[in-house]
Amino acid sequence: MMIEILAILYCSCFILSALLLAWNLTSLQKHLKSQELSNLNFNLKKVDRFWSTTNDHFANLNESSIEGDARAARRSCLMMGLLGFASLPGLLLFLTLTVSLKLIKSRRSIAVFRSELVHRTELSTGEVQNLVQNLSEIT
Q1: In this predicted model, which residue has the larger pLDDT, 69 or 101?
Q2: Res 47: pLDDT
Q3: Whole domain around residue 105: which residue ranges?
Q4: Minimal CA–CA distance to 43: which of 128, 132, 134, 130?
Q5: Which of 119-130 are b and which e, b meaning 16 or more Cβ less than 10 Å from the residue's Cβ?
Q6: What is the domain count for the chain?
């Protein structure tokens, strides 16, 4: 009887973890393909910068940095997902991390995604540089 209960508990944790991981990956993919992030990176390319999804800050741009950051974000999401597959405490930790990452955003990230860098694509290089400098000062 005890083995059956453990098997049911493990299967339940596995299924819930898989669903939570799928939701995380879907929302990450949606963010990476969003018009807001595209507009932001379009403007930031004017000053050789890009928005790092993994670190929530402006980073220096090179030819593979945006794709590398997207790969790192997906890898982090998958690594977090592995927590839930191991056990019930792992699932609870994974759920806690997911909820906190979805609900708690940095002030800089909120300010950046409300700024003109996201909503206007016809900004000049000087305007972009000023906005980046002002937004970089937010902690």
Answers
A1: 69
A2: 95
A3: 2-49+57-136
A4: 128
A5: eeeebeeebbee
A6: 1
